[in-house]
Design brief:
By secondary structure, the protein is α/β, with parallel strands linked by helices. It is 36% helix and 25% strand. The chain has two domains: 7-66 and 152-243, 3-Layer(aba) Sandwich (Rossmann fold); 87-150, no CATH class. It has helices spanning 45-53, 94-104, 110-119, 135-147, 165-180, 192-196, 215-221, 227-243, and strands spanning 7-16, 19-29, 34-38, 60-65, 68-69, 79-82, 153-157, 184-188, 200-205, 208-213. The protein has a six-stranded mixed beta sheet with strand order 6-7-8-3-9-10, with helices on both faces. Strands 2-1-4-5 form a four-stranded antiparallel beta sheet, covered by helices on one side. Bound molecules: adenosine-5'-triphosphate and magnesium ion.
Amino acid sequence: MAFEPVLETIDLHKHFGKIHAVNGVTLSINSGEIYGLIGPNGSGKTTLIRLCLGLLRPTAGTVRIFGKAIPNKMILSDVGYMPQAGALYEELTVRENVAFFAEMCGSHEPAWIDEAIALVGLQDRARSLVRTLSGGMRQRTSLACSLAHRPRLLLLDEPTVGVDPQLRATFWSYFRRLAVSGVTLIVSSHVMDEAERCDRLGLMRQGRLLAEGTPGELRKQKNANTLEEAFLRFIEDDSERGTR
Ligand SMILES: Nc1ncnc2c1ncn2[C@@H]1O[C@H](COP(=O)(O)OP(=O)(O)OP(=O)(O)O)[C@@H](O)[C@H]1O
Ligand SMILES: [Mg+2]
């Protein structure tokens, strides 16, 4: 189907004991979109991403990726994930890590591995053990790990934390190139200039999707000059509603 969303969630909930980490999220993301997930610490972004991937079982609700209900191992080769907390093997080299994750996702293309390493600018460190890398270099390795099997959907959980501004700009122009080629990206971030680069944003608060729209639409809704100002107003207005 031409207009089937790449990823959709329907009334998704996740409880951790008393914490309602995701509280009824329904969203639909289209092919070639860069969808930004924004929201305060603890608002449920990581939990939502993990639910989408089938890494967590929802308390209620449904996730579909490329029309298939999640969890589903068949979609593994189509999906790339960069977790917020590093998941690298310290005693393996950069290249071994990237090759391992690519292989786990069903890819055996050495050229793709080298390309992913080059993209993050780590050609010269490909043989370095991960434990000997700087924080930003680890982050870059994690991104390469999520890309090397050339997935059609990428879920990136704060991919640019600790990455220097120049490389951050490189990452974002690459994300845009991927999107133009039809790859769909979901990117969580706290950085407003990154949010500005997304096609559409979802603002989360307390497990709910508080607002959704293009950066321009969200600014306009709150009559704000900047996205930061708009977000603060969305959150302020929502907390006022909650205390009324
Ligand atoms: N495995 C878990 N067990 C218990 N509580 C959890 C677990 N994972 C997340 N939570 C809780 O769920 C809520 C949402 O957390 P989540 O990590 O999804 O937030 P986030 O929006 O990604 O925050 P941040 O911006 O800090 O990364 C928090 O209150 C957190 O403590
Ligand atoms: Mg998080």
